[in-house]
Design a protein that fits this description.
Helix content is about 40%, strand content about 20%. α1 packs across α2. It is built from 13 helices and 14 strands. The chain is elongated. Bound molecules: S-adenosyl-L-homocysteine and iron/sulfur cluster.
Length: about 350
């Protein structure tokens, strides 16, 4: 394995000041370095023409600016969604999805480019419908590897990402030690400069992580992968529900509501004969109302090797109408780019299967 270098993307200005100080340089060099990294986006220390050559060499010997090497970009034939797979220094693969805004989308939260990022290689939570959980957890991503996905996406798309969703591989709240430093850089006006209101963290309901994220104190958006409105149904598809059942999750979400500024979104994958029956819609509506939350319905996306089935379109619509009838704000999202395995973890899963 090649030597692993540390990556500077996760260094805040303060951390750079300290690093440069230890190398015998003045704090203004940190400002110059920040500009090269985030404003000019140079991938290479030698391009930093106003830094002394000895400093460029010293940095190059120890650090990296691009922690990911993009190895595959696949385009969906239906939309303009692009999914890319990147290789990290240790050879592991991570995937991210670039999603352009729908034409004509307006309002205060309209965006031009959304990126779906991964937070871990694989996932330890093992939800029964999810490709990321199938192979278990390999490792956490570093803060720089999270940031590197955004930098890579902007290089692929040729424009800035202005909306971020943590809905790729992994459970972000199980990787708080890297998530929080990554968020700090993402929101820093001198780094990626994406506002908290444009960042959505999706969680399967990691209760201690939720409390830590609330204490972080930024107005981030929260999506909760619910997928079952009773412990009985939820535990069938999400083993995490046995650890943090609804009786613990719901109070933690009520607590979030007291500190958060936005409506929580409840994500609900519709799976035939599991959670898509109409009585479940009623339970879901009651739960959503108690949290003042909106619901996002996602017809199940087929994962090779898994037994679950997407309900018919008519059944999905009936479920959606039942929620509307109970005055719950609801959207239904047919995965863009079904043909490129748009659900999280599917591209990597295919690669790993080809390899073995
Ligand atoms: N671990 C976090 C974030 C990553 S999963 C979480 O679970 O929320 C991102 C979303 O993709 C989740 O809502 C997850 O339930 C959904 N997903 C996973 N597998 C899917 C599939 N086969 N079809 C549709 N959505 C899926
Ligand atoms: Fe992990 Fe989320 Fe997939 Fe569950 S849905 S296995 S928590 S990535």
């Amino acid at each position: 394995m090649p030597e692993m270098k540390e990556c500077l993307l996760e260094y805040t200005r303060e951390a750079l000041v300290e690093l440069l100080g230890s190398l015998g340089h003045k704090p203004f060099r940190a400002t110059q370095l920040m500009e090269w990294i985030w404003k000019h986006r140079v991938p290479d220390f030698q391009a930093m023409s106003n830094l002394p050559p000895a400093l460029r060499d010293a940095l190059q010997a120890r650090f990296l600016l691009r922690p990911l090497q993009v190895v595959e970009v696949s385009e969906s034939t239906t939309g303009s969604t692009r999914k890319f797979l990147s290789r990290m220094q240790d050879g592991h693969l991570v995937e991210s999805v670039i999603i352009p805004a729908a034409v004509g989308q307006g309002g205060a939260h309209s965006s031009r480019l959304t990126l779906c990022v991964s937070s871990q290689v694989g996932c330890a939570f093992g939800c029964r419908f999810c490709a990321s959980g199938l192979l278990g957890l390999t490792r956490n991503l570093t803060a720089s590897e999270i940031l590197g996905q955004i930098v890579a996406a902007e290089e692929i798309a040729g424009e800035r990402v202005d909306n971020l969703v943590f809905m790729g591989m992994g459970e972000p709240l199980a990787n708080m030690d890297n998530l929080l430093p990554a968020l700090t850089q993402i929101m820093d006006p001198h780094a990626l400069n994406i506002g908290a209101r444009h960042i959505t963290i999706s969680t399967s309901g990691n209760v201690p992580g939720l409390r830590r994220l609330a204490a972080f104190g930024r107005p981030l958006r929260l999506a909760v992968s619910l997928h079952g409105a009773s412990d009985e149904v939820r535990s069938q598809v999400m083993p995490v529900n046995r650890k943090w059942p609804l009786g613990e999750l719901i109070p933690a979400l009520q607590e979030w509501n007291r500190t958060g500024k936005h409506m929580i979104t409840l994500e609900y994958i519709l799976i035939q004969d599991v959670n898509a029956m109409l009585p479940e819609a009623h339970k879901l509506a009651r739960l959503a109302r108690s949290l003042n939350a909106k619901v996002n319905l996602i017809p199940y996306n087929t994962v090779e090797g898994l037994p679950w089935v997407r309900p018919s379109e008519a059944d999905c619509k009936a479920f959606c109408r039942a929620l509307v009838a109970e005055r719950v704000p609801v959207t239904m999202r047919y995965e863009k780019g079904h043909d490129i395995n748009a659900a999280c973890g599917q591209l990597r899963l295919r690669r790993e299967q080809q390899r073995s």
